[in-house]
Amino acid sequence: MFDNPNVVLHCEKIDKIYPGTKALDGVSFDLLKGKVNVLIGENGAGKSTLMKMIAGIEQPSNGKMYMGGEEVYFKDTTAARERGIGIIHQELSLFPNLTVYQNIFMNHEHKKGLFLDDKAHVEGAKKILKRLEHEINPDTLVGDLRVGQQQMVEIARNLIQDDLKVLIMDEPTSSLSAAEVKVLFKIMRELMDDGISIVYISHRLEEIMEIGDHVTILRDGKYVADADVKDIELSWIVENMVGKNTQYHRFERTIDLDRAEKILEIRGLTLPKKGGGYLLDNVNMHLKKGEVLGVYGLLGAGRSELFECLMGMHPEHTGEVVYKGEKLAIKSISDQIKNGFAIVPEDRQMQGLIQTLDICKNTSIASLKNYVKGIFLNNKEEEKAVDEQIQDIHIKVADKKLPILSLSGGNQQKVVIGKGILTHPTVLLLDEPSRGIDIGAKTEVFEIIHDYAERGLSIIVISSELKEIMAIADRIYVLSNGKCTGELRADEITEDALVRASYAGLGTGASA
């Protein structure tokens, strides 16, 4: 029996065993009442697995949970919801073919006689979205919304639960802008004022220090430490997460980039916006052999659109792309892969991975033509290439035939990078390669970038995080409102210079 009035839910020595791995090993965890309980650890530490136990998505192999002085067992999510537990998943669990209001009220439908009361659903959706400062039309299909708006719909789904006691938020800000994060934090404080307890999982350590009350750290499926946020510093968190204080550091280059040949030149690249204006406005850039070129800018600056143009997703663009000294006619994605371009997209789940395929097929899918003999696929050659890639970029996997979702977020990201590298590109485009992965996995991804650049691969990296792009890029272009507003090299690369350039194209009178 466990009874503490300050603890809304207590987990006692929870184990979770999957075939071949122990995801949780004797983890005890107290969820403090009316507080933001931060749960952190590297990818694969067991954070999401523990939350799945509490939310009824998975059941513990061993151990007990208590609420209100009595033992509880959640056979499914319905049983957990009946005890007032809601969860906002890291990967969105929305229905893209249904409307905003249908998604918000899924499993919480109002009825009028025998029929659904859609009028009440629409009004309820408007009310909750207004609270979230996102007044989206409730009749809009969720599939037509941008990722940040979809995340707000996911949050809204949980806030309509009347008897909410515990809200689990697994990486809720990974696709939100700074303004949207501010709104979310305001809502979280209002929820705490109402006595609701929040579990908050995030890799953004600055957010944890701002919004968190109490921190619990997991590593390799085990409890490591916990403390009140007011009593700790960032260095304490990092040291307990990874066992040492990991800092971003600039890699020493052995290539003389001043003498390196130009692989790619972008001249006057322009992409019109529907309804007027430009997503990209007369952008000029160049990339050298073996260079890591950074692209920095605020949300909506045109960074992803730049990559989409280079990969053949916007044939309507104008301007010139000169590749290896010759003007390139960009027609399609498949042609660009043949030309030597590969992309690692920002949203690995929606655009980078195929959920129904195993690790091996996800790694080889873009380069399958290399393993065809006649009309048949040479499985032996395919698997050999995948094995070499797994070893080369250190993907932690017990069996490449396991489902892709059996991997941690950091290792899934490595698979997406490996998929691109297996096409043997000359130019690798990385769009937010460290999004949603922990410090340890980020460091490994940065090492992969440096290693392949040293081998002569030319890489362009988009990143929203100042310290990251400063650590990995040899040279940085800054985009603002579709314009190139700065080019920084070596000692010119400072946080102040990057921030100033990223705001330079906003407002009237801004020039490229």
Structure write-up:
The protein is of the alpha/beta class and 512 residues long. Among the domains are: 7-242, Rossmann fold (3-Layer(aba) Sandwich); 349-419, no CATH class. The chain is 32% helix and 26% strand. It is built from 17 helices and 24 strands. The strands form 6 sheets. The chain has a 6-stranded mixed β-sheet, sandwiched between helices. Strands 18-21-22-15-23-24 form a 6-stranded mixed β-sheet, sandwiched between helices. The protein has a 4-stranded antiparallel β-sheet with strand order 2-1-4-5, covered by helices on one side. A hairpin with a 2-residue loop joins strand 16 and strand 17. It is globular and about 70 Å long. The model is unreliable at 506-512 (pLDDT under 50).
Entry summary:
The protein is α/β, with parallel strands linked by helices and 512 residues long.
Supply the key terms.
single chain, 512 residues, alpha/beta, Rossmann fold, 6-stranded mixed sheet, 17 helices, disordered C terminus
